[in-house]
Specification:
CATH topology of the largest domain: TIM Barrel
Structural class: alpha/beta
Helix content: 25-40%
Radius of gyration: 24 Å
Number of helices: 18
CATH superfamily of the largest domain: Metal-dependent hydrolases
CATH class of the largest domain: Alpha Beta
Largest sheet: 6 strands, mixed
Strand content: 15-25%
Number of domains: 2
Length: about 550
């Protein structure tokens, strides 16, 4: 252990020396390809110059000809230059979790399609661990497993009876545990359901291993506690995934103190090549407001909105709806899901953070939950008037037209998980919501018609970090089964690009520095192989060639 610590210390010293001595980004001139500025006028420029970490000039090649002197000239050769993509909502560095956990995703993300395959994947993970270490897996989807159900404790006991096993559903809102894991968590026949959660039980009343919402969070807190070395591996993999996708600003949408502290220190040591906006959980925000914790902020790490979770996930049957699910999960035809935070408690929390001058972001998928969220925002605004709060409804999946009207009037930003139409659209149409409601999930065009500046997001690691597929999904609304869901909710390519650039920057109160290619803004850029405006049907097949953060190329595709 001592040798390991010494080695890690030497590596850290070497990194710090390299960081201090590395040359500045200098002057760069980009020309020879369409430059999509995504400024207020949607201008497409011919050339762009950067100096240091900022954009210095944007215009025609003739106007910027003088910038060639002493500059590195990048010939785009017809390729497109855009603002770096900005993550409106995700869970960085969760994309790197599969460096240390079993990948249980089903097609089209992964290849686990049966419970037997899931058990075998976990057994392989268990064999590489210490006898008493947690066996962890993420991403299973009960609706895509051949058996059509969640793994139970008996299924997971097949993985190991001497090691605790804990796995998370692809939504992150449901989990499953083996018998030893339940014992470790103190969950038994007499354990009551926690507020905002459910411990599923068998006919004998004993827990069957499946945990919902706040009960699942108890398990996720136990299994998502990586060692310092594993944390480093997770962060390194996440950096690579995000930069390869053209993301220059990542987001952690529900951070505890450990995550925030780790990201703050990585940024302080120069080990975060991209920028990160962290949304504290309510527990962490209370610690920050009380002065019990503080974190150094920089251009690579800053704190944003406080995050609350009002309901669950539609595909986990825990989203809170005003009308019953199309095909209910059990025997109750009136089942509508449930709130994770009681309405009165939600009102109190929103009012307290709003009064403290904070931006508030609330997860809400079902329309009944969105009603509660908007009621809470409206009550807080009436009690403590403020301007330009930019409160956010995260996912806003089943938002109705009247709710979009209220969002416009309250100045609320909906952030749509638009990839739902690709990954879960067929099951929403046939199982969860039915054809009519599925056709208007993530209603981006409805928001656009009302002049609402919305954002769209991947919610990674729920689905892979693929901003170009995200834009394609909002533009085309095609399901994995090839069905177009609600063609009237499709949006133009430029509008979708704005939702992952300038409007995402605005959501984070960073539009003065990011999100469009204008002089004075940070030189956060991405080069793609074709102009997305000219290829609406195949945006998901565009290739990211280079990612630039603060004027420095931080990722290049092979062969570029």
């Amino acid at each position: 252990m001592r040798r390991l610590l010494v080695a890690l210390a030497l590596v850290l010293v070497a990194v710090l020396v390299w960081w201090a001595l590395r040359p500045g980004p200098g002057r760069v001139l980009y020309r020879g390809g369409p430059i999509l500025t995504l400024d207020a006028d949607g201008r497409i420029a011919e050339a762009l110059a950067t100096e240091g970490d900022r954009i210095a000039a944007v215009g025609t090649e003739r106007e910027l000809a003088a910038w060639q002197d002493g500059a590195r000239v990048v010939d785009l050769a017809g390729r497109a230059l855009l603002p770096g993509f900005i993550d409106a909502h995700g869970h960085f560095p969760g994309a790197g979790i599969f460096a240390v956990a079993a990948d249980l995703n089903a097609p089209p993300i992964g290849d686990v399609a049966t419970l037997d395959a899931l058990v075998m994947r976990l057994k392989a993970q268990a064999a590489a661990l210490d006898e008493d270490a947690w066996v962890v897996g993420l991403g299973y989807d009960d609706t895509l497993l051949a058996e059509g159900r969640h793994p139970t404790r008996r299924d997971l006991d097949r993985v190991s009876e001497s090691q605790p096993v804990g796995i998370l559903h692809v939504s992150g809102h449901v989990a499953a545990a083996n018998s030893l894991a339940l014992a470790r968590l103190g969950i038994g026949p007499e354990t009551p359901d926690p507020p905002g959660g459910v411990i599923r039980r068998g006919p004998d009343g004993a827990p069957d291993g499946v945990l919902e919402e706040s009960a699942a969070e108890q398990l996720s807190q136990a299994i998502l506690q990586p060692s310092p070395l594993d944390s480093w591996r997770i962060a390194q993999r996440a950096n690579e995934v995000y930069l390869a996708a053209g993301v220059t600003t990542a987001q952690n949408g529900y951070a505890d103190a450990l995550q925030a502290r780790g990201l703050a220190w990585l940024a302080r040591l120069g080990l975060l090549p991209l920028r990160v906006v962290v949304w504290p959980s309510e527990t962490l925000m209370d610690q920050l407001l009380a002065g019990e914790l503080s974190f150094p902020e920089s251009e690579h790490f800053r704190l944003g909105a406080v995050k609350l979770i009002a309901d669950g996930s539609i595909q986990a049957y825990t989203g809170y709806l005003s009308e019953p699910y199309f095909v209910p999960p059990g025997d109750d035809p009136d089942y509508r899901g449930y709130p994770r935070i009681a309405r009165d408690e939600l009102f109190e929390q929103v009012a307290r953070y709003h009064a403290a001058g904070l931006q508030v972001a609330v997860h809400g998928n079902g329309d009944a939950s969105i009603d509660d969220i908007l009621d809470a925002f409206e009550a807080a605004a009436a009690a403590h008037p403020r301007s330009d709060t930019r409160h956010v409804v995260i996912h806003a999946q089943m938002a109705r037209d009247d709710q979009l009207d209220r969002m416009r009037d309250l100045g609320v930003i909906p952030s749509f998980f638009s990839l739902h139409t690709w990954y879960w659209g067929d099951r929403h149409r046939e199982r969860f919501m039915g054809p009519a409601r599925a056709a208007r999930m993530s209603p981006a065009q409805g928001a656009s018609e009302r002049g609402i500046r919305f954002t769209i997001h991947c919610d990674t690691p729920v689905v892979p970090m693929e901003p170009l597929r995200l834009v394609w999904s909002a533009v085309n609304r095609r399901s994995a089964g090839g069905v177009v869901l609600g063609p009237e909710q499709r949006i133009p390519v430029e509008r979708a690009l704005r939702a992952v650039t300038i409007d995402a920057a605005r959501q984070h109160f960073e539009e003065a520095d990011k999100g469009s290619l204008e002089p004075g803004k940070l030189a956060d850029l991405v080069i793609v192989d074709r102009n997305p405006l000219e290829h609406p049907e195949s945006i998901d097949r565009l290739r990211v060639l280079e990612t630039v953060v603060g004027g420095r190329p931080v990722w290049r595709a092979d062969g570029v």
